[in-house]
Structure formats: structure tokens, C-alpha cells
Write a structure and sequence with these properties.
16 strands; Rossmann fold; alpha/beta; six-stranded mixed β-sheet; 541 residues; 20 helices
Length: 541
């Protein structure tokens, strides 16, 4: 009997390169050609890169560690094995650590854990630990001593999750300032000893560049949006055609799809992340794809592996939902900067992986070709997985709702939308969803009331088209299904009748009248005294 071939599956949680390579059931998608280009930089070799969580940052650092240590046996058959990598002839000592090991519930716990981290570095280098001095001072002495001990008189430093201690205290400004002060002095030692460091790479999710801690790291080159590294983390569609093809085929076989259909389904769920305005290539979330291959099912894995508490806490503090997430206007500052005091929503959602670059808009040019202003961007959720995360668990988390009570309400609304039961959807479900808004959240005007409607409608699968353009203005929303068209107008502290009158007076529904699908007009008024909508008016066009 012929033995069935075992198909290796890309990792869903192994962050150690050696373990991954030696695991007979795991697959490593070869990124070593890109890592070679990154690591061979001799000048400008002290770097920073941000990517959303679960995108393989820790595995990347582990791979770089093995490269600099010259462990060529682990790279047999990979692209770098054929390249003139310096590490094969002259390894360099590597000291790698994660700042997640320096996160405590209090400032004293943080400082104690940071001291333990430095103590471990001394132990790894077999250098006596000094008994006096600050944590930052001891770290600076370690960098000098470790480099002096090295044959090359230099070392490699790899720092994962640099922002973890900071994110912990963003809602506690007093403690945050104390943590910042310690980290500023700690990270500054990397800059002061840059001559002893052959290569430095720091990773994180957010770029909290307005924190004072970053002034201690102003020597780093931020490669987060560099075109040449846009596909360094995550899987490209070409990699689904190549090293992952057998996994796509096996997934398709389980689901009754051919390769093309399976690939298209996988891309719709997990692809879409664009990390550089200068590179149109997009990548898939690697952990989600690995989970889908392992389970044989397309669903939301990224959100269930741990929510971005920093983003959720920020929205809770703001006391309102963000605006339309499908068309978020942004500029370079939005992508590159995150102010810790104001924590701009678009910056957080982009850096956290909830939004990505959908479109690059070039500025107009003068007759001599010089641009007028700078380019801008349209941001949107990258894929179905993120949209589902935004529609379900994310919203219930932000609003402080129990998913056991919230989910049935959402599910009922989804069924009503699917069956065309607009009366049940508007009279029952929409009223219940508005009633779920926390009592301390203020809805001050029509725009805010409409924002919730658009979010709820999106969450329940209605896929509203906001601000739909017509000859005489913009309808607040249009929902089209294969069987019907609904045109919505919103009012605040007025009446649903006034909303209906506006739809008719401005001909918002004229485009669809006379077509094969019935057209329904819906007027909705938000009543601030009730903190909910009045009974909507539903009329045929």
C-alpha cells in the first residue's frame, strides 16, 4: 500500500527558527533572500520595523539570529545558502530579547523585570553582573563588555516588542511618564554604543514616535514602509502559487474546490495588507493562513488569538465609534506617527492591522511638474477576516457588552437582512442595537447617530453604501440586495416624516424606480431624549 505523503503546514505559533526547520511537520516559507539584503547593510544598519501582531516578527528575529551566528546547517536548501553571507565565515555574537518580558502591573514590577532582563543578558554573555548602577547604566556596560569580548569587536542586538511596556500604561499618564523616563535612558544606550553594534533591529506594533522614549532611538532607520521590505513579513499570492501550492490544493480538496477557487477564497479572507505606498504588492496574515490550512476552514483566527487591547481601550476612552472604516483619509503622518497623548484612531487602526492602504492619491502638479502638497491615502480593512473582526467581537468589546447577549441580537438582524424583513430589522433589531450603546456615550448630532447606523448595518451584513450621490444631493445610505433596494435618510431631533419628505423631494430613489427590484424608502429619526430611534417610516417609492 502506497504511503500517503505528509504535507508540511506553515507555522501557526512557532517563533523559533531552529525548531521550525527541524520540525518534520512544519513548513518555512523562505524569506532569507530578503533577510540577506536587510542584514548585509553595513552603514545604516540600526533599524526599526512595525507590523501588526501575529505577522511573524519574532520568527524573523530568530532567523536573523541564526544567520549572524553562522548556523549554516539550518539554512540548507534556502536562498541564503547559495549567497556569500558573512556569517558563514565570521559569526557575530547575537543578543536577542523581548520587551514583553519587562511588562509589570506596576512601575516597580516593570523596573524589576527590566533589571532581570539585563541580568540575563550578562549571564548569556558569561560576563560578571555589576552590583551598582542603574538598569540603563548596567545595560550600557553590557554592550561595551559584550562587544569587547567578541572576535569581531561588535555584537548584534535584536529587540522584539519594544512597545509592550509602554502600551501597558497608556491610560495611566503618571506611571507612563515614569516608564518613559526609564526606557528613554535604557534605549539611549543603544545609540551611545552604536559603534559596538554590527546590526540592530527593533520590532513593534505601534510607532509611538511622540513619546520621549523615541528621542533615545532617533538614530534608527524606520523601514516599516520601505518598498523593498513590503513583503518581508506575510505571504504573497505568488507564494501561494509556489511553496504553499500543495497546501492550497489540500485545502481545496477538503472544501470541494479546485486550486484557483481555493486560492481566491483564501485571498479574500486573509490577503490585502499593503505596507508601502511605493510597492503595490500585498500580503496575507501568515498565522491566519496557517490556521486555515490546519483546520480546513475559513474563519477569523487573527482576532481570536488576542485582541488589540490598546486600540479597544482607546475607543472606549473616546466614547464613540470611529467613522466609516471603508474610506479613511490619511497622509504620511498617519502611517508613520502615533501620538501617545491623543492616540489618533486612524494611526492606531492602521498600525494595529485593522486598516491598510487601499489607494495612493498623488497630489496635483504645477506646470513645471512640481507637486502641489503631498500624496495622501485611502485606508480600508484589508480583508474579510478583519471586517468580520470589526463587525462582531470588536464592537461588542468596545461597547462593553457580553457577547452571549449581543451575538443573538446580531444574528437575528443578519437573518432579517438576508430575508428582506426590513420591518423586523428596523423596528426590532436596529432599536435593540441602539439600546446597547453604553449610557455614558453621548450622541450629539445627526452625523454621530448615522455613524452608529452605518456600523450596525455593516455588522449585520447589510453592506450600506454611505453618502450615495444623486443629482440633487447625497442619500445618507443605500442598501442593495439581489431582491430589493432601500434608500435611507437620517434625522436628529426632528422626525422620520421629514426624512421621507427629503428623499422624495430630492429624488434620492429615482435611479432605481422602474427597475425589476422593488424600491423602499426609509426615514429614521434619532431622538436624543430617548437615546434611541423613533419608530422608522417605511414606504414604497
Amino acid at each position: 500500500m502506497k504511503r500517503q505523503k505528509t504535507i508540511r503546514v506553515p507555522t501557526t505559533g512557532v517563533n523559533d527558527f531552529e525548531k521550525l526547520i527541524l520540525d518534520e511537520e512544519a513548513k518555512y516559507v523562505d524569506k532569507t533572500a530578503l533577510l540577506y539584503g536587510l542584514a548585509r547593510r553595513k552603514t545604516d544598519s540600526q533599524l526599526f520595523i512595525s507590523r501588526p501582531r501575529r505577522f511573524g516578527k519574532s520568527l524573523m528575529l530568530s532567523t536573523l539570529k541564526a544567520m549572524f551566528e553562522g548556523r549554516r546547517n539550518l539554512f540548507k536548501g534556502l536562498a541564503i545558502d547559495k549567497l556569500p553571507w558573512e556569517g558563514w565565515k565570521q559569526p557575530t555574537p547575537v543578543y536577542s530579547f523581548t520587551m514583553a518580558d519587562a511588562v509589570g502591573d506596576t512601575f516597580d514590577e516593570f523596573r524589576e523585570q527590566l533589571a532581570d532582563l539585563v541580568r540575563q543578558l550578562y549571564a548569556d554573555a558569561k560576563i560578571p553582573f555589576p552590583t551598582t548602577g542603574s538598569v540603563a547604566g548596567k545595560f550600557g556596560k553590557f554592550l561595551k563588555a559584550a562587544a569587547a569580548k567578541s572576535k569581531t569587536k561588535q555584537i548584534v542586538i535584536l529587540v522584539d516588542e519594544y512597545d509592550e511596556p509602554i502600551a501597558k500604561f497608556l491610560d495611566d499618564i503618571e506611571t507612563l511618564n515614569r516608564v518613559q523616563s526609564v526606557l528613554h535612558d535604557f534605549y539611549e544606550k543603544l545609540k551611545n554604543n552604536s559603534g559596538s553594534i554590527r546590526f540592530l533591529l527593533m520590532t513593534g506594533v505601534t510607532k509611538l514616535t511622540k513619546l520621549s522614549v523615541f528621542s533615545g532611538l532617533n538614530h534608527l532607520t524606520d523601514i516599516s514602509s520601505f518598498a523593498e521590505y513590503a513583503t518581508l513579513l506575510g505571504y504573497t499570492p505568488k507564494e501561494l502559487d509556489g511553496p504553499l501550492r500543495e497546501n492550497v490544493e489540500a485545502f481545496g480538496k477538503k472544501s470541494g474546490m479546485d486550486f484557483a477557487a481555493a486560492k481566491a477564497a483564501i485571498l479574500s479572507w486573509y490577503d490585502g495588507y499593503r505596507f508601502s505606498p511605493r510597492n503595490e504588492n500585498r500580503v496575507c496574515n501568515p498565522v491566519s493562513i496557517g490556521c486555515a490550512f490546519k483546520d480546513g476552514e475559513l474563519k477569523g483566527y487573527w482576532e481570536t488569538t488576542g485582541r488589540a487591547t490598546l486600540i479597544i481601550n482607546r475607543i472606549k476612552k473616546a466614547g464613540k465609534m470611529p467613522a466609516d472604516l471603508e474610506n479613511v483619509r490619511a497622509n504620511k503622518m498617519t502611517l508613520d506617527v502615533c501620538d501617545a497623548e491623543t492616540l489618533p484612531m486612524a494611526s492606531l487602526l492602521y498600525q494595529g492591522g485593522y486598516l491598510t492602504i487601499k489607494e495612493v492619491i498623488s497630489p496635483p502638479r504645477q506646470p513645471d511638474g512640481q507637486p502641489i502638497g503631498s500624496e495622501s491615502y485611502i485606508l480600508a480593512p484589508p480583508n474579510l477576516e478583519v471586517r468580520e473582526a470589526l463587525k462582531s467581537g470588536y464592537i461588542s468589546q468596545v461597547m462593553g457588552l457580553e457577547e452571549d447577549s449581543f451575538t443573538p441580537l446580531v444574528d437575528a438582524a443578519k437573518r432579517q437582512v438576508a430575508s428582506g424583513d426590513w420591518k423586523g430589522y428596523l423596528y426590532e433589531s436596529l432599536y435593540g442595537l441602539y439600546a446597547s450603546i453604553p449610557p455614558d456615550w453621548r450622541i450629539k448630532n445627526e452625523a454621530e447617530a448615522k455613524r452608529y447606523f452605518l456600523l450596525f448595518a455593516s455588522m449585520t451584513g447589510a453592506n450600506p453604501q454611505p453618502e450615495f450621490a444623486t443629482m440633487l444631493g447625497y442619500a445618507d445610505a443605500v442598501i442593495e440586495t439581489p431582491k430589493a433596494v432601500c434608500v435611507f435618510e437620517f434625522k436628529y431631533a426632528k422626525s422620520a416624516k421629514a426624512a421621507i419628505r427629503q428623499i422624495r423631494a430630492r429624488g434620492y430613489a429615482d435611479k432605481w424606480i422602474g427597475g425589476k427590484r422593488p424600491v423602499t424608502l426609509v426615514g429614521i429619526n434619532f431622538n436624543p431624549r430617548k437615546r434611541n430611534i423613533d419608530l422608522p417610516i417605511i414606504e414604497p417609492a
